[in-house]
Design brief:
The chain has a six-stranded antiparallel beta sheet, with no helix packed on it. The two termini are 18 Å apart. By secondary structure, it is mainly β. Strand 1 and strand 2 form a beta hairpin.
Length: 94
């Protein structure tokens, strides 16, 4: 199944538990991340997660799932963000 078709069929949800654990489904790519910000692409658009001490607990792009731990301060959909190449494409040359 092509990436585009899979993306359209993938459900999207955001579950925040106590501002410390964030589970996101419908993730198609992670463009950047550090301890203060994660920039990711979902089937519903670009999503910016900001906070402190952020780290990726689990990333499964095939399943479209991302889990972030840390102090979550902001979740914002921002379609004005123009992502560069994926972080994983830059690292692995895909």
């Amino acid at each position: 199944m092509a990436q585009e078709e899979r993306s359209r069929e993938m459900p999207h949800s955001v579950i925040l538990e106590g501002r410390e654990k964030l589970t996101i489904s419908g993730v198609t790519d992670v463009h950047s991340f550090d301890e203060e910000q994660v920039l990711l692409e979902t089937v519903r658009g670009m999503l910016v997660v900001r906070g402190q001490g952020l780290h990726v607990e689990r990333l499964q792009l095939e399943a479209g799932e991302l889990i972030i731990q840390g102090e979550i301060g902001l979740l914002e959909y921002d379609d004005s963000v123009q992502p560069r190449d994926s972080l994983f494409r830059r690292i692995f040359g895909g």
